[in-house]
Amino acid sequence: MAEEKKKSADPAVLQLLAKCESCEGLPTTMWDRYDAMQPQCRFGELGVCCTLCFQGPCRINPTGKEPVRGICGATDYTIVSRNLLRRIAAGTAAHSDHGRHIAHTLHALIEGETDAYSIKSEDKLKAVAKKVGITAEGKDTMQLAKEVVDLALEDFARQDENVPLTWLKTILTPERMEILERCDVVPYNIDAMVTETMHRTTMGVDADPVPLIFNGVKCAMADLAGEAISTDLSDILFGVPKMVVTQTNLGVLKEDQINLAMHGHNPVLSEVIADMADEMVDEAKAVGATGINLVGVCCTGNELLSRRGIPLATNFASQEAVLMTGAVDAMIVDYQCVMPSLGMWAQCYHTQLISTSNLCRQAGDVHIEFNPKTAKEDAKRIIGLAIEAYKNRKETDIEIPDYRETIVVGFSLEQIEEILRTQSDDPYQYIVDQLKEGKIKGFAAMAGCNNLKTCQDESHLTLAREFLKNDIMVLATGCAAGALVRGGFTSSKATQEMASEGLKEFLTTLGKGMGLEDALPPVWHMGSCVDNSRIQFFMTTLANKMGVDIKDLPIVASAPEDMSEKATAIGTWLVASGWPVHVGIFPFIHGSPLVVQVAELTARDVYGGFFIFETDPNEAARRLSNIIKHRRWKLGIDADEEIVYPTGETAADFFEETEPQKANTANGGK
Question: Is domain 406-666 annotated with CATH 3.40.50.2030?
Fold first, then answer.
């Protein structure tokens, strides 16, 4: 009998899954539902089924045997390309809509329609205004904010196709913008890109994979702009993240307090709940609790973690486990990555499941629609429901795993620049010098979700561990960051135990520069999934300092457990920006060799970035480390190093190819 696959790298999650298995009458878990789906549809995994019209579903045989065309005549490359584009459009819609909601909240503040918010970072407001070409001189705070938010909203509504998105121009090198313009993939209007992509992929419209894929790139660049808007405006409204010491994992729940778990991706309501919780402690004590304990889940959790130090309970795959503890009095959800199963788990306990967006409703939820005008009242009502629910707790239901990690988070660009200025008045030149000296070999951006096709978090932890051994600094966002904080990678202890000597020296020097007794952590938590824009801006600034394009930098990106359509959009704009991007779960494109070839090879020729599809995290780490070596060699930094090739292989790999590599090659892996 085959050995059972390990479900999670987090012992707190395994503890609660064991609890679930020993109890009758509880709902199924995500892992149970995954097992029930086996074997999964092979046509679906290859991306060769089409449901765009009602004549199907059509399933194409990628081996060349009949049927090779759908009822309308669509081939494998048409179906796979269309499906891919629709995922990019959905991801772009999600990220950009997030940015739009932040813009509307800031607009409500400017118009005097809400007293729940304030501009917490005037410095960031001035910096963003300068970045987008708005003069701050002679303007008060609200006037300047209005001009910034109006320009942001214009990126959603511009009708002049010859004017690029403002926020896109701020986050790319001049050389990169030139490449994108040459390829005609510079968007002018975020909403128009989503609409055009959906139109183009409608039955009976575009069937040519080349313009289809280029349209997908154009839509993904709109996603990047939407993320950048969200990050900038959130920093203005809620404050720029600063380094903070806090805790993570399910042990942050407290048995003697009212526990509120805030889940989703949009911080506009959770920020107000955090403010109002301080005002309602006496009401919590009146029902026997010692206080109110706020914890985060997924990217709303990452936002609160970065700005306020509010503990992060867990990431995507184990959101049900938060409710399994029996200690959560209310789970407040906004939107994105919220499992429809939460309703049935909440009903097993005393927990109130409270939805706050009309975009994201749950069967059996209590719906309190968020409105900036009534944000304080809404927040108090939500906290009041949690206090009432606390009265119905059953001690026999409660099991809080005793797992907690002490972590250091809050690495915004502004915080990173402050850290680097302790060593040099020119922070980016300091990074360049460290790269040339080899203290840092390069940077790895780690993002993405969880996917039950692998052990939860294990691929994230494996890749990060290998990067740190090779002097590669890790910058993390989203659920990847959630995995790494719970795995113990964001502490000075991790630097001592995991980082190689050069990286350890670099981080120790920076720690001392900040007046700390210990080194900085080797993984820098940079925020939620929209905050990938922070990483992009960091690398763009570094590339400009070095006088090169992003495609020349010793950098790589990895989504080891990709799951969401948002990850597809992110991966696409990273590739188009010049990043080598590893994906650890095969996307639904391998039914078309042509599309795979474009992703892995043609993209490199056009953009300098490319995809690497590799399920083995150790092999992925090896290839990504070699790519960084190759880029260093091309920059002339390590001229005496062994030559490695852009796809991540050394010369020896071409003469001594292993069996797994042969299999990967057969799937279009090289």
Answer: yes
